[in-house]
Amino acid sequence: WCPDYSLSLEPAAQLEISIVPCHNAEEIREIYCGFRSHIDPVLDEFGYELVTKGYQPVSKADELEIIPKQRYELMDRYFNSIGPWGKRMMRGTASTQVSVDYYSEKDFTDKYMVFYTLIPVMGLLFEDTPVFDGRPYKGHLLRQRIWNGTDPLRVDIQPYIRNGRIDFEDYLHFVMNAPIIVKKTDNEEYFSDVETLCETKLDGSDRTV
Fold it and tell me: How far apart are CA 61 and CA 90, in angstroms?
C-alpha cells in the first residue's frame, strides 16, 4: 500500500497507476519516478519491462483476453455490438489521463473548453502508437480515432456545446443520455444496452456505469 498512488488492472491487464491530487507537475514526476524505482527492479528479475505506448505494441486485439471481471465482460459485450473499435479500446489502448479541479461553474466551463480545444494538439504532440494490431502504423492520432469510434453516444460531447461553451446543465444532459451498459445493485451487476439515466429510476441500492 502507498499513500501517493494506487495500482489497478485495465480490461486486458494494462497496468494503471492513479496518482493522488498534486499541486504541480513536479510532484507528479517525483511520485511516478518513485513508483518506477520500486517496480522496475522486480520486473528486471523476470526479464520484463513496462512499455508506455498508446496501443499494445505486440499483439492484436483478438489475441488478448479480458481479465475475469464481470463489469469488463458486460462492457465488452456492449462495445462489440456497436462496432470494431470498442474491442480495440478495451484490449489494446493505454493513455495518460489528467484530472483538473474547478471551483465554480464558470471555471468549469473555461477549463473544459480550453482542454477540449487542445485535445487534437496534445494528442498529436504526445502520441506514441507506432504499432496497430501487430502492424506498423504510419498515421496519426490512432488513440483518438479508436476512442471516437468506440461509442459516439458516450464520447461525442459536441452536440451539447452551445455557442462554444458548455455549462453544468449541458454536461448533465450528456451524461444522462449516454447508455448505461452496466447496472449494479447490492447483489449483482447486469447488462443494459438501451437504458439511460433519464429512463432509469435510481434508489439507494442502484448504481450505474
Answer: 9
Question: Residue 184's pLDDT is what?
Answer: 73
Write down the pTM of the prediction: 0.84
- The C-alpha atoms of residue 7 and residue 9 are separated, in whole angstroms, by 7
146: left (phi over 0), alpha (psi -120 to 50) or beta: alpha
- pLDDT of amino acid 182: 79
Locate 1 and state its grid cell.
500500500
When comparing pLDDT for 205 and 66, which is higher?
66
How many C-beta atoms surround the C-beta of residue 88 within 10 A? Answer: 25
CA of residue 166 relative to chain centroid, distance: 21
Distance separating alpha carbons of residues 202 and 78, to the nearest angstrom: 21
Cβ count within 10 A of residue 91: 24
pLDDT (tens digit, 9 = 90+) per residue, 122-163?
999 998 999 999 899 999 999 999 999 999 888 899 999 988
Q: How many CA atoms lie within 13 A of 7 on its CB side?
A: 11
pLDDT digits (tens, 9 = 90+) for 73-100: 989 998 998 899 999 999 999 999 999 9
